[in-house]
Structure formats: C-alpha cells, structure tokens
Design a protein that fits this description.
The chain has helices at 2-18, 23-46, 51-76, 78-82, 88-120, 124-160, 164-192. It is mostly helical and 193 residues long. The model has no long low-confidence stretch (mean pLDDT 80). It is globular, with a radius of gyration of 20 Å. Helix 1 runs antiparallel to helix 2 (23-46).
Length: 193
C-alpha cells in the first residue's frame, strides 16, 4: 500500500510543478507532514500500535496529501479535465523514466538495511560508530539526492517543452553546483572527522 501512495503523491505533485506552480506542492507536503506527526502520536501513544502505527501514519498522510493534490489539480487546471483518456504511450514513457529512479532508491534502502543488520551483531560501540558515520553521510549526500531529483523534473519539463538547448544549460549548472558542493563537503569532512 505504501509504494502506490508515494507514487500517487509524487506523480500528482510533479504534475502541479510542471504546470508552473511550485508553491502548492510545498503546502501539500506540509499538510502531509502535520498529518503524519499527529497520526504518529495518536496511533503510537493512544492506540499502542508501535512501529505498525508509525507505518500506517506515514501511508495515511501521504495518501491524504496525494488525493488532495489530485482534487486540487482537477478543480484548478481545466486542461486535465479535457484530457481524461489515458494514452498507453505516455504511461509507458512515464514508467520507463520513473522505474529506474524508484529502483535506485529501493536498492539503496535494501543495502542499508542489510548493512545495519550485519553491524548490529558487532555490539553497541560499532552500532554507535555506524550511526554517526551514517548521519554524516546522509548530511553530506542529501544535497546530491535533491540535485538529482531536481534535474529529473527539470529535464522532463524541458524535454516536454522541446527546449533541449535550455536542458544543456541546466545540466551544466547542476554539474557546477555539484562539483563545488563536492569540494566543500570533502574539505568539511576531512577537517571535522
């Protein structure tokens, strides 16, 4: 149930962004976060559901956010009302572009889980060291994930608008930003760890 919910939310907020509205997805993301926190407290503390409660809170909050995005899009953008027919070519194209990114995140998460399970057998000192290293890694690599996701959206928008020249400019800018950040994070990690 979690994967379709996340897919729905990402698809809907991606469509809203591609229509030139970048603020509305943030509002729905904040809504989702608030619902998630409230449901976490309710399902874990009041209903005593434990980890399952946290999972249900996450899935429910994303489902509510995705559905409200969908309703918002349907009411606000008339072009979506006139194009109700699903075209198999477009669906195939979207899946061909989205599946590799989804698999990338899945493989990374599975690898992290396997690694954590192996480290847990070594004792609390190793677990603490692994956790500290993992936090540093996440802190330094999070901007690269954001840059990759941003460029995926940017590339999709520009290919759809047939602005290939602009796409090249964006890729060059992203490479410069990524290179500068790489050097800065290398220096920061070298002198702080």
């Amino acid at each position: 149930i979690g994967i379709p919910t996340v897919f729905l939310y990402n698809m809907v907020s991606g469509v809203i962004r591609s229509l030139g509205d970048s603020k509305t997805p943030v509002v729905f993301l904040v809504l989702s976060s608030i619902i998630n926190v409230v449901l976490d407290f309710f399902l874990i503390l009041v209903c005593k559901m434990g980890v399952a409660g946290a999972g249900w809170a996450t899935v429910t909050s994303q489902l509510v956010s995705g559905l409200t995005c969908l309703i918002y899009m349907y009411k606000k953008y008339d072009i979506l009302k006139s194009e109700r027919v699903l075209d198999r070519r477009f669906i195939t194209n979207l899946c061909m572009n989205g599946v590799p990114m989804g698999l990338q995140y899945s493989i990374t998460a599975i690898g992290s889980t396997i690694l954590q399970a192996a480290v847990n057998t070594l004792g609390s000192t190793y677990v603490a060291a692994m956790t500290a290293g993992s936090k540093m890694f996440n802190f330094t690599c999070c901007p690269f994930d954001a840059l990759g996701s941003t460029m995926a959206t940017y590339a999709g928008q520009n290919v759809g608008a047939a602005k290939i020249k602009r796409l090249g400019q964006g890729v060059r800018s992203a490479m410069i930003i990524g290179s500068i950040y790489s050097v800065l994070s290398l220096i920061a990690l070298y002198f702080t760890t």
